[in-house]
Amino acid sequence: RQALGIGVRTRRYGQKALAFAVTHDRPHHNVSTEVHRSGGPFTLVPLPDRDGRPSSAVVWMEDGRETARLKSLDRAAFEDALNARSAGVLGHLRQATALSEWPIISQIADRFAGPHVALIAEAAHVLPPIGAQGLNMSLADLDSLLDLMRASPGDADALRRYDRERRPEARARMLGIDALNRASQAGSRPLRDLRAAALGGLYAAAPVRRLMMRAGLGMR
Ligand SMILES: Cc1cc2nc3c(=O)[nH]c(=O)nc-3n(C[C@H](O)[C@H](O)[C@H](O)COP(=O)(O)OP(=O)(O)OC[C@H]3O[C@@H](n4cnc5c(N)ncnc54)[C@H](O)[C@@H]3O)c2cc1C
């Protein structure tokens, strides 16, 4: 992307994500759970059992100052904070791997294609990790590219079509995830109430929930 001189638009949120694995008492039944509170969402993503116990990956987003504080805690204090934050959705959580830290940004390339080049995945778009969009969007990029390149790989018209197909779709998803993330960050009381109402309404309405799941799965 840089070699082609394709620019990006980047939005920084001042948030970071701590990522690590946990084991827990209750099975996850292969369901991913997001707990929304001020600071950012806390997500449990199902993993295969570890040491004979149910296990999940945690993605814990907070303001950068708070992730620095959490990282400096000793293990017992960190697990207390972890269990307070998870609201007990999978029973008691135990930290199973070291913490890795990720800056949270939204970013989109100005173009998704150039001469003989297509940008896919995070070279094209980066989103906050909410609603499991990242990998699915990347697979949709590949799907579209495979379709368009079948006849003549590298064809300039087909690459322009790839850009026209994928960029608006990626931008729309980015705006949606940006709104959810901002709602999740909101600290003031009225905004918190609004966020709770919006998220409650979103997840309570079965057709909307199905739509979000289909979007997360990259289905059209
Ligand atoms: C904390 C966190 C949690 C996430 N959770 C989810 C989730 O639950 N579901 C989901 O769908 N998505 C999730 N995502 C998003 C997902 O990780 C990304 O969408 C996906 O990894 C992007 O794939 P990629 O191939 O573009 O980049 P990457 O997976 O980052 O792969 C790029 C690779 O290129 C290598 N590389 C970089 N520079 C060079 C170089 N110069 N030469 C050679 N190799 C190089 C890197 O080492 C890396 O291996 C999450 C992201 C984060 C940060």
The top-level CATH class of the largest domain is Alpha Beta
Task: Supply the CATH superfamily name of the largest domain.
Answer: FAD/NAD(P)-binding domain
**Straight-line distance between termini:** 27 Å
Number of alpha- plus pi-helical segments: 6
Within the CATH hierarchy, at the fold level, what is the topology of the largest domain?
Answer: FAD/NAD(P)-binding domain
Bound small molecules, deduplicated: flavin-adenine dinucleotide
Q: Which architecture name of the largest domain does CATH use?
A: 3-Layer(bba) Sandwich
Layout of helices and strands:
Blueprint: E1 8-24, E2 33-37, E3 40-50, E4 53-63, H1 64-72, H2 75-86, E5 93-95, E6 100-109, E7 113-114, E8 117-118, E9 125-126, H3 134-149, H4 156-185, H5 189-204, H6 206-216
Antiparallel strand pairs: 1-4, 1-5, 1-6, 2-3, 3-4, 6-9, 7-8
Helix pairs in contact: 3-4
Flavin-adenine dinucleotide binds next to strand 1 and helix 3.
